[in-house]
Amino acid sequence: MSERSPTDPRRAPRPWRDEVASRLAGLKLEAAREAEIIDELSQHLEDRYRELLAAGVVEAEAWRTAIADLSDPEALGQGLRQVETRVEIEPVVPGAGGEKENVMNDLGQDLRYGLRVMVKDRAFTAVAVLTLALGIGANTAIFSVLDAVLLRPLPYPEPQQLVKLWSRFQGIGLPNDQNDLSAPEFHDLQQLSQSFSGIAAISAGTFNLGGKGSPERLAGAAVSPAFFRILGAQALLGRTFVDEEAQPGHDHEAILSYGLWQRGFGGNRTVIGSTIQVDAVPYTVVGVMPAGFDYPQDAQLWGPLAFGPDDLSPNSRGNHGLEVLARIKPGLSFAQARTDMDRVGKTMIEQNRSYPYDKFGFAVIMNSLLEETVGDVKTSLWVLMAAVGLVLLIACANVANLLLVRASGREKEIAVRVALGASPGRLARHLLTESTLLALFGGTVGLIVTPLVLRGLVALSANTLPRVVHTGISGAALAFTLAVSLGTGILFGLAPVLHVLRAGSYDVLKSGRTTAPSASNRLRRGLILGETAVSLVLLAGAGLLLRSFMQVLKVDPGFRPEGVLTMRVSLPDAKYNRPEQVRGFYGELLDRIRALPGVESAGAINFLPLGGLNSSGTTTIETEAVKPEDRTPEVDYRAVTPGYFKAMGISLVRGRYFDGRDSDTAPRVAIVDETLAQTYWPGQDPVGRRLHFGGSMSNPSWLTVIGEVRHVRNRTLEARSRVEFYWPEAQRPQATVSLAVRTSGNPMSLAPTLEREVSALDPELPVFEVRSMAEVMGESVARRRLALILLAVFAGLALLLASIGIYGVSSYSVNQRQQEIGLRMALGARQSQVLRLVLRQGMSLTLVGLGIGLLAALGLTRLISSLLFEVRPADPLALGAAVLLLAAVALLAVLIPAGRAMRVDPAVTLRYE
Amino acid sequence: MPYIDLTLFDRELKKGSAELLILSLVEARPRHGYEISKLIEQRSAGALRFHVASLYPLLYRLEKRGWLQGRWVEKAGQRRRRYYRLTSQGRGVLASQRHGWQAFVRAVNSITSPAETEHV
């Protein structure tokens, strides 16, 4: 209250103002109006006082006379009451109570006033709340995913003690040299490790459950009895496995998932002790797990994993197919357990000198279970979280701009508050309360939208997320939204506060003039610069992911997926226990399929390329071209039937495909891929050469190469696979195969016919994973596509918001300069010159923003380099396209107001002068 | 000095004569409140005086009716003052009020002047 300068030439001195103010107090006038009346009346009194002094009246007498003019204290109030409208707003003069009480009172006042302002200015409120809801809602959605997948601890007791173990075979294991373990290796780990309270092997797979007439294919796993104990899981009904069940012959017990129990057995408690058919073998149900227990993911059925003498024999040491889970003993650190594993690895090398551990740099790899579960989506999720955070920043900048425009409109009101003695801090609190209120509304609307966004996200992500994401809003997400809303409110609320509080402008307000528009415009331009730069970073990121995705799609997988239908069929051992039964079944099935109209060719393979299942092993190659120790590489191999290569469109380089000649009784043959041929028989014809399964010391029969085919990207589109060979399925039958059928039309339309053919041969056989080969390929890049779609959506959102921001600022500046433009045109400026003037102003801002954004993008895109494929983070195409797109949109956003400026009628605008 | 009782004059205001005074004073050019009150005092030789508490509510009422338009004006070296300008609507009102007042004064004069009583 004391800042007012007594020498302020523009204001009547203080005492008059107080006298007048005291007489207005009871009127509850609108603040601005009250200030005007005080100004005018006190000026009158001052004039009178000075005149009296000039006439020689002594000061005291002059004062009394002037005050007498105000008449008795009631008269002014009565007179004004009939003229002036009262408003409900309470004056914002700080109260006289204690500091704390005062703050609370102020807050209440501010909230009421803020709400009133929001209701009064509905259009502004709607735009601001919607913008914020978009930003906050998107943030809450992505945070919900991040929280569910990365942040929430795994649903097991003491989850930090859970680890997964792998064997390391340099150059063989994928990814990161990681390989599954074999039964003998698992046995070694059990014997040698000292740091685990439990260790379990898991062999995940799918099983036929049934049931005549209603065969069902289920995901499940054979697990060591310790498995449930390690995970701290109790059965809901019955029990989990006991150690004796890890013995062959005692392993015909099964545990059901809650879902399977409900769906398949009607939730009937008598299921315990009953018998079910798993792969045509009777199993006794001993337990039901509680809802939510699904390790491995989607497992619905668990059986005991028993190792017989064959499984544990030295011959099986290379048979890597087990997932191994362990729990670190309480009190031991992760690092201590890892040291223990290093020791175990060395011991295993020493104890098994006949196995080529040394050659492949063998070691035991230990990773935390959480890292294992979410490791490969971690980067994507954090990148998306950052992206969506940037979108919110842009939304904040836009709302801050809106608030600045409004603040200029409200300068009078703020001036009155200052006039009435509101301190800078008090004003700041008031403005921040308003903006926070807006943000909270935005957050609330965002929360309404979030479940919808989440539902879309979950649908879009299908099975690409390693953990289940619920579409509800968790407590953590709620807290996050609240925090973000409050933070957002403060962030964008700061703009008008800065605007008002910048030393100069506060003084200007006090003086009653309006602020110089240039100061506020600088802030607005700064915000636009930031928005443009941030949008460019997002667009560049999306561009890079798009380029990567296109590069991945351009990769030649080595086969032609168009028109190919695939489905998986599995023959239960119990029913098809002789090789000729399996051979006979598939031979007849494929014959029937080839005879169907619309089928061009058909074949089968044990593991489809890019289907996620692979097999590989040490293979001895008969060659002189490489050093002896390099003649036993790890090779990807697969079993195929005649017709497979043709159906998949895998072209022959040399020799011939498999056919009827390559029967069980014929000489053992193989087809190699071009990489194997080039690596081991460079410059030579591979046909007639030989190779065999296993290392050089093992002694299986040689396979003679009869053909060479193109290399197929079996494991991932993004990298070449190892060298490959195929053997004829007839010479080593496979119970479970994928059919590959090339059709002349839409492959999926043939699916029902094919399923009918399968059940015509055996009605108890379920057909599963019915997909076109294009879908199989699509699923192998689903995660990449998801990240791309989301980042593209966020970049689009950023572009939209930034263009709205640029449009707003240009439009506002054109409005502000209408008189200037009118004057220029009156003085003879041509329309084109006006257009250039506005464009130059608008686009120079954008160009500087683009420059800053480009620098930032060059720095930041490096962070996503692990998500890129054959595209450099500084890819000129992606960055250039981002710059051009943003510049084009900005140009459009500036052109619209520029067009308006061109049509300014000088006569009209100048009339206002 | 003859002096009209304030409360009496307040009643007169309500009859509209005060409105007429103010509208007349701003007819030639815009004036601020203090100037208006000074002119009323001077031109009536001190017989009529407006208190602040009466003058300003009246000014505001006239402004509200659209007869006057107030505007803050700053002049170099002076404090800012609010000037009141007669609007075109106000001009119309002034004309009719002036006409009415003159008719009223004539009527009152015709009754109160002793010379003319004899005629009736």
Structural class of chain A, please? alpha+beta
Strands side by side in the biggest sheet of chain B: 1-3-2
Would you tell me the overall average pLDDT of chain B? 78
- Tally of contiguous helical segments of chain A: 27
Commentary on this structure:
The complex is a heterodimer of chains A (913) and B (120). With 913 residues, chain A is of the alpha+beta class. Chain A has 27 helices and 22 strands. Chain A is elongated and about 135 Å long. The N terminus of chain A is likely disordered. Chain B has 120 residues and is mainly alpha-helical. Chain B is 61% helix and 12% strand. Chain B has a three-stranded antiparallel sheet with strand order 1-3-2. In chain B, strand 2 and strand 3 form a beta hairpin. In chain B, helix 2 crosses helix 5. The N terminus and C terminus of chain B are likely disordered. Chains A and B meet through helix 2 and helix 4 of A and helix 3 and helix 4 of B.
Describe the SSE topology.
The complex is a heterodimer of chains A (913) and B (120).
Chain A: H1 14-24, H2 31-54, H3 59-68, H4 73-81, H5 99-120, H6 122-151, E1 162-168, E2 178-179, H7 183-192, E3 196-209, E4 216-223, H8 226-231, E5 237-238, E6 253-256, H9 258-265, E7 275-278, E8 281-288, E9 301-304, H10 309-312, E10 323-328, H11 334-351, E11 363-368, H12 369-409, H13 411-419, H14 424-461, H15 475-501, H16 503-511, H17 517-554, E12 564-570, H18 579-594, E13 599-605, E14 616-621, E15 634-640, H19 644-648, E16 652-655, E17 669-673, H20 674-680, E18 690-693, E19 703-709, E20 724-728, E21 736-743, H21 751-761, E22 767-772, H22 773-780, H23 782-816, H24 818-826, H25 831-860, H26 876-902, H27 906-911
Parallel strand pairs in A: 4-9, 6-8, 15-20, 17-19
Antiparallel strand pairs in A: 1-2, 1-10, 1-11, 3-4, 3-10, 5-8, 6-9, 7-8, 12-21, 12-22, 13-21, 14-15, 14-18, 16-19, 17-20, 18-19
Helix pairs in contact in A: 1-2, 2-3, 5-14, 6-12, 6-14, 6-15, 12-15, 12-17, 12-23, 13-16, 14-15, 17-23, 17-25, 17-26, 18-21, 23-24, 23-25, 23-26, 25-26
Chain B: H1 6-15, H2 17-25, E1 31-32, H3 33-43, H4 52-65, E2 68-73, E3 81-86, H5 88-112, H6 114-117
Antiparallel strand pairs in B: 1-3, 2-3
Helix pairs in contact in B: 2-5
